[in-house]
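This section describes the prediction task in plain terms. A model, or a person checking by hand, is given the sequence of a single protein chain and must write out its three-dimensional structure as a string of C-alpha cells. No templates, partner chains or ligands are provided. The sample shown here is typical of the held-out split.
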Amino acid sequence: MSTLNSSSNQKTLADALTPRQIVEELDKYIIGQAEAKRSVAIALRNRARRQMLEDDMRDEVAPKNIIMIGTTGVGKTEIARRLARLVEAPFIKVEASKYTEVGYVGRDVESMIRDLADLAVNMVKSEQAEIVKEKALELTEERLLDFLIPPPRSKMSPDSAEKDAELTDEGEEGQISTEADPLALAMQQFDAAERTEISEQEQERYLRTREKFRQRLRDGKLEDKPIEINVSNRTVPFVEIFSPSGIEEMDINLKDMFGSMLPKQEKKRRVPISEARQIIAQEEAEKLIDMDNVISDAVARVENSGIVFLDEIDKIAGRESKAGPDVSREGVQRDILPIIEGSTVMTKHGMVRTDHILFIASGAFHVSKPSDLIPELQGRFPIRVELKSLNEADFKRILTEPKNALGKQYIAMLKTEDIDVTITGDAIDEIAALAFQVNESVEDIGARRLHTIMEKLFDELSFDAPDLAEKAITVDAAYVTGQLSEIVKDEDISKYIL
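The expected answer:
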C-alpha cells in the first residue's frame, strides 16, 4: 500500500472537503435524507484524516462501513454515486444478489475488486491522457502533415553515395573497381555532390510547403480532406469458458493472452482529417503514457480511496437453508466477509488489499432485517442509517430544486425541437400529489414514481413536438389533470401504466 509523506498529507487534508461542504454538494442533487448524508460525509472526511496519521497508526484505522436501509427510490444509490464523483474516487456499484457461493455457477465475490481495479486503471489513464494531451496533439499534427505531404525522397543521400563507393572499392560483381579506374571514382563523387545539392533544394521547398499546410491545418480548412492512415487491427478470437468455480479465480485474462500472442496487424483506412486526428491523437497519447506508473497509482487509489456500493444486500440476508435460488445466500455472506474484513485479491494489475476500501451496503429490508445477516458481517457495518420515505413536499422539491431536476430535463429536451415549455407552480403541486397518491395506493417506489408520471404526462407532447405549429406550451394543473387524472383514479389501470 502506498504511503504519503508529511507534506502531501497536509495538502490532502487542506484540499479535502469538510463534512458540511460534502452535505451541501449532495443537497444539489438529492432531496432530504440528512442523516444519511451526514454519515457518508463523516466517512469521507475520515479518509482524509487517516492520511494525516503516522504510518503505523494509519494501517490500524479501518473504514467505518455503512448500511443504508430504505425503500427503493429514496436516494441510496444516488448518495453513494455522487459521493464518489465529489472526490473522484474509484467507485463501483454491484448487486449482492448476482454473486454466488463458491461451488455454484456464477460470479465470485472477488470479481468486484477486479472490476474496481480495472475502473481505477481507466480513470488514471484518462487523467494521464489529459496531461500529455498537448504533446500528443503536437505529434499528431506532424503525422498529419506527413500524410498530406510525404517527405521528399532524394535520389541518393551522401550516406548512400559513400556506401556505393565502398561497394565499388570492394569490386562487387557487375561494378568497376575504383582502384582500377580513378576517373570512375571522381565521376561518382561529382554525382553524389550534385545529388546532395538537389536534395537540399527539394528539402527547402518541401519545408516551405509544409508550413503552408500546417497553417491551413490549424485554421481548420482541411478538416474534410480524406487521407489514408494505418490503423492497428488486432483481432482476438472469441472464447467463452464455463467453469463451476468461475474462471476468474485463476486470474486468466484470455483476451490479453491471445492478444499478445497474435501479431499486431495494421489496416489502411481512408478517413477525413477530423476523424484521423482523433485516431492518431489517441495512439500518440498511449505512447506517451507510462502504464507502469498508471497501474501503481490506480492500485494505490483502490486501496486508499476505493468505494464499493453493495446494493440489495437484504437479498442475501437469512440463515435458514432453503431449496431453490436462495440456497447459497448465507454462503455468499461468508464469501463477502473476508473482502470486507480485509484481504488480498489477485487482479491482472497485481495484488490489491481491501483493508481500507469503503463498503456502503443498502437494502429495503422489507422481508428480512439487518440482524438476519451473519454476526460477523453485521459487525463490519457499524454505521446503520435509515432513509425516510418521500412525501408530497419532497416530490415538489425533487421536481424543481436539484441541478438535474426532472422538470428541467424535459424542458431542455423539448427545447431541441424549438418548443418552449413552461411548467407552472400549480402543475408541480398536482404532479407531486398524483405521484404520492399512486405510491400510497399501488407500491411505494419513491422518486422513481415521478419518472413514470412525467413520462406519461409528456408522452403526447414528445410524440407531436416535431410537427407542432405552436412553439410555446404551458403545462398547468388543468393540463396535468387532463392527461393523468383518469389513469390515477382507476387503480387497475395505474398498476400497469404508472
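For orientation: The chain has three domains: 6-131+292-386, 133-288, 392-490.
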